Amino acid sequence: MEKGEIRINTENIFPIIKKAVYSDHEIFLRELVSNAVDAISKRRMASMAGDCENCDEPQVKITIDREKNILKISDNGIGMNDEEIKKYINQVAFSSAEEFLTKYKKDNDEFIGHFGLGFYSSFMVADKVNILTKSAIGNSKTFNWSCDGSPNFTLEESERDSVGTDVILHLMDEEKEFIEPERIKSLIKKYCDFMPIDVLLEGETINKKNPPWRKQPSELKDEDYIELYKYLYPFQGDPLLWIHLNTDYPYDIQGILYFPKLSGRADWEKGEIKLFCNQVFVSDSIKEIVPKYLLPLRGVIDSTDIPLNVSRSALQTDRKVRSISSFISKKIANKLKDLIKNSPEFYTEIWDSISAFIKIGAIEDEKFADLVENSIIFETIINSDKDVKKYLDDKSLIKSKEKFYTTLSNYKERNNIVDSKKIIYCSDVIGQSSALKICLSDNKEVIKSDPLIDAQFLPWIENKNENYQFQRVDSEINELEDKDSKEIVDKDGKSNTDNLKDIISKALNNDKVTVKVQSLNSKEAPPAMILLPEQMRRINDMGAYMEQKMPGLPEYHVLLINKEHPLIAGLNKITGNKIILDKKDPVENPLASKIANHVYDMAKLSVGGLDQEQIINLQNNNADLISDLLKTSK
Ligand SMILES: Nc1ncnc2c1ncn2[C@@H]1O[C@H](COP(=O)(O)OP(=O)(O)OP(=O)(O)O)[C@@H](O)[C@H]1O
């Protein structure tokens, strides 16, 4: 058996390291400034252990020499001696981070660089790079390392006034954009804003410092949170609410997440949270750090615990990332709990804007679902004319701007719902108004559902918890029977109800429509209504959803005839003699047939079940019917 060591041909691997690892040329600046910041942290760490002097004023300076086409990044950090240059610079993929952490026994890793590759991104923009460096430790000399992008370097003694490092980039002709102060200024803003250290360009500090998310929430006012949001996301209006993440256990995570005020559809794909590592901007398009349903959130997450890949433009998707992501969703769930408990009115004001996030989150993530169970609310419609005081005093209702809101469990408790009794909901106050009025006059409480998201969310709740059953307000109407109303029975034993059913069924001549006759004692009840039995309607809705169209009126439906209504009573009367006697063809009475069809069309019209052509027909038939009625009323 032969054993050996795999070797890498530097000539071939060098171009890969220089070009392939990083996608964007501009990130060389982020890498070099991060190295400078790390060097300053290392110097501070070493000085605390008494190994060197700390610098008075840590800073990173960027200088441009237009004539010579040189960009210089200088720091007053720890610097390097010749041995360290050979170890950390000449050996690719060798970082000093671990050694520092071990040597100075630091548990919390505050360094940005770990892979030992970042420095080489400078060869994406420069055809020659010099490092002029003087170590802070011992009485070190200054060294000048130079490399033209080939695997060959030179290292010689040199001069530098003080401790620290200059990285000198001789820019390629095609990368001359990086000699423009405005370009560098915008890169400093992008990558160095909120760094703990001043980054100067031509003597002027360019970066914003003191990130608010590093402060204690008690030190910040609402205005501070809003100001940061507006700085990060200009022209976006104020955020709805924010969550200040500020923990060191189990993860070191600082940050502020905002629920934006979204106009139109939420962008569920984009991911606009800015990721920082130790106050150094890493990326604004990292998606894995929050669960997918929270992607429309904005703001900042700053953590050294997030495992970045080499290019720092993506995450290593591992258990830790998943665990951080569920930690963040837990924090959000806790914030919602806190708001509903302590600021219920404010919560109802923002609820419409955040409910889609929360409901989709619950559907997608079981743990989140359990956490937000009692933070999911519905506007609820009650017949407050009857006993306003009772409702106003009811602690299980949230009152806000003349509206009432409830959680589902409170609804159940308030309405004494056990076993088979269902939660009644209304998805369209106008389209379902007849049924809604009847329910309210029967003292039922009706929750308002969102026609889009709840079409998915309510069946999901039923599936998850068999104690919850929902029924749309127009799926069936309880008989509001007038106890005194007497049924007249003819010689064949047929009642008014049977006769009406016969007459109308014959007149409609449509076996997909089930005619049901009931007494609806409510004053609000119309002569007839379309009812859509719950399961039948859901199947229809689902079909429409699959075909991506609006669910229309299902072919199969129930026509509920209210025999208490004067119109129906009248219909009964005019057919009383003729039709019941004439068993062969009960709709021989053309007026009765026209009235029955009119009643049906009006019921369909009120649920939006007539198309344009049918509406025109309705107008013609109406005119016809009224003419007939006028003839008979001479
Ligand atoms: N400005 C500097 N001052 C002092 N040491 C530096 C400086 N720049 C680089 N070094 C040393 O060179 C090493 C390699 O740097 P490089 O940027 O290639 O990788 P890194 O920063 O350690 O890791 P990463 O690839 O994750 O950025 C660093 O770990 C550090 O020891």
TrEMBL record:
Keyword Chaperone: yes
GO MF annotation: an example: ATP binding
InterPro entries, per the entry: HATPase_C_sf, Heat_shock_protein_90_CS, HSP90_C, Hsp90_fam, Hsp90_N, Ribosomal_Su5_D2-typ_SF
Binding site for ATP: E31, N35, D75, M80, T165, R312
Gene3D superfamilies registered for this protein in UniProt: 3.30.230.80, Heat shock protein 90, C-terminal domain, Histidine kinase-like ATPase, C-terminal domain
UniProt KW Cell inner membrane keyword: no
Highest taxon of source: Bacteria
Coiled-coil intervals: none
Keywords per UniProt: ATP-binding, Chaperone, Nucleotide-binding, Stress response
Cross-referenced CDD domains: HATPase_Hsp90-like
Family in the record: Belongs to the heat shock protein 90 family.
Entry protein name: Heat shock protein HtpG
